[in-house]
């Protein structure tokens, strides 16, 4: 089986990110591609890290949280990373639930106001 080795352009295409995004992830040390002259190559480690970064973003984690989580793996290993993830996930799920509750309340209020307005408009026309 051949080792994954993606170019900068292939990495952007694979993950549907802009070159600016990919460069920024490198700048803040989320990714560290191999360099050959001016060319960058991304191996299996960087591809896996990118998948984790994008998943973290989808779940609402900040890039700094993703960076810290990846650093834990680099310095302390899998078990420490999993323990840190459990804490992060619990915190994020509580935050997302709070946001959901606020959205549900806003939807109920907007729906009620819309229905009252529709009734008043119907009475005026009627």
Structure description:
This protein is mainly α and 126 residues long. The protein has a single domain (6-125), classed as Multidrug-efflux Transporter Regulator, Chain: A, Domain 2. The protein is 75% helix and 7% strand. Strands 1-3-2 form a three-stranded antiparallel β-sheet. β2 (34-36) and β3 form a beta hairpin. The mean pLDDT is 93.
Topology:
Elements: E1 6-7, H1 8-15, H2 19-27, E2 34-36, E3 39-42, H3 44-58, H4 63-76, H5 78-125
Antiparallel strand pairs: 1-3, 2-3
Helix pairs in contact: 3-4, 4-5
How would you describe this structure in keywords?
single chain; 126 residues; mainly alpha; Multidrug-efflux Transporter Regulator, Chain: A, Domain 2; 3 strands
Summarize it.
With 126 residues, the protein is mainly alpha-helical.
- The value of Rg in angstroms is 23 Å
| Largest beta sheet: strand ordering | 1-3-2
Number of helices: 5
Run of helices and strands: EHHEEHHH
Share of residues in strands: 5-15%
Q: What's the domain count?
A: 1
């Amino acid at each position: 089986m051949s080792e994954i080795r993606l170019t900068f352009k292939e990495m952007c295409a694979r993950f549907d990110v802009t070159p600016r995004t990919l460069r920024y992830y490198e700048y803040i040390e989320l990714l560290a591609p191999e360099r050959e002259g001016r060319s960058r190559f991304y191996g299996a480690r960087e591809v896996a890290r990118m998948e984790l970064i994008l998943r973290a973003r989808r779940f609402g984690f900040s890039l700094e949280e993703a960076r810290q989580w990846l650093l834990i793996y680099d310095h302390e290993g899998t078990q420490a990373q999993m323990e840190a993830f459990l804490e992060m996930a619990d915190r994020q799920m509580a935050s997302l639930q709070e946001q959901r509750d606020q959205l549900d309340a806003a939807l109920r209020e907007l729906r009620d106001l819309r229905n009252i307005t529709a009734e008043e408009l119907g009475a005026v026309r009627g």
